[in-house]
Amino acid sequence: METPVELNEIMRHFPKFWEEAGNLFTKTVYQESQLDRKSIELILCALLAAKRWETGVKVHVGLAMEHGATAGEIRGALLLSAGVAGLSASVQSLHWAEEVLARR
Q: Distance from CA of residue 29 to its chain's centroid?
């Protein structure tokens, strides 16, 4: 998966942090969650939709697909964000997701 352009600055200015702390944090959180990777990615899709972070939604939609999630499961996870963040967050994230789903 290609690194989103929005992450280039942190990677360029703080490469040691990104490689060591960023990756270690993510790896540890994923392992400690005791969830399978597909479930993790679906949850992250919903959480990032609630935060309204386009890059995050697109990255984790792609990762969810790589780990076996169907388009329907991804759309369902994004729909669930409406219960916490409101319909506008869910609608916007579904739009972002379709860009990724269309490329697969």
A: 14
pLDDT, tens digit, 9 for 90 and up, residues 35-62 = 999 999 999 999 999 999 999 999 999 9
pTM of the model: 0.87
The residues, any chain, with a CB within 8 Å of residue 69's CB and separated by 6 or more, are 38, 41, 42, 77
Instruction: Domain ranges for the chain, please list them.
Output: 1-34, 36-104
User: How many Å apart are CA 102 and CA 83, to the nearest integer?
Assistant: 26
- Just give the CATH number of 36-104: 1.20.1290.10
| Beta carbons of 102 and 61 less than 8 angstroms apart | no
